[in-house]
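Reviewer 2 asked us to include a model.

Predict the structure of this chain.
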Amino acid sequence: MIVVFGSINVDLIASVVRLPEAGETLTGHSFSMSAGGKGANQALAARRAGARVALYGAVGRDAFAEPALALLRNDGVNLENVRSVDAATGVALIHVDARGENAITVIAGANARAEAGQVPNEALGPASIVVMQLETAQDEVAALARRARAHGSRVILNAAPVAVLTLDLFRNIDVLVVNESEAQALADAFHMAPGPKSFVVEFRARFNADAIVSLGSRGLVASSPDGPIDLASPAVRVVDTIGAGDALVGAAAAALDRSASWTRALQEGIAAGALACTRAGAQASLPYQQEISRLADTI
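Predicted model (structure tokens):
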């Protein structure tokens, strides 16, 4: 069972030839609205990768709440403990350029009201994997990490968006997932050696936890008991990169939930991330288990 504590958003997406500079106004060529939020995306990614998933978070009592939850509900994510609160549903404002690269501004809204106490002790234990990100209050993330570890759950933290984190939080996780810039920011903050490979090795040695650094089209590097693991990303035709990192986290968590090996979980994570790049949008792009497994077999 996978417990996801995290953000639930509506994504407002503008397609542009290039990303705007500071103070610049560009004319876009299309607009769309879709469900998003790193918590919701990772919950759906894990569900589509074959896991049983419960999502804990908050939405507003507004017109964006139902669109934010629709795909999750349709795919069978347990939403019983998603709260409705007196705040606007979270929103992400996204620009996507002609190369598929993106720039995102997130407004937390109701996500700031999500509380670790929503997750009951009964949902925690050795049979549960708890997945979290940093689009909800860090104090709540840290509180749930401590309680989950105390109950024997495996804790996965996607430390995004980048933030100043505490040593206490790192000591209560089992797997850290970051991209290259996030890894560099953490390395600088904790006086660690630069570079993704050095980061995963030192993180494992210092915190007795594994780390994954996603490298976009270059694949990923991860720690292991036998040293760093480098995996190249399969070549795909990129439509946009929105949701790729969330696909990686969700699919890797789903693989670990069914007791796959660490290497296989990394392969399925990178396969899911690559497949998500071949389709537009965050949740709509998330792949299903059969296609993830087929592509992972080639990595």
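The two ends are 26 Å apart (CA to CA). The first strand starts at residue 2 and ends at 5. We have added this to the supplementary material.
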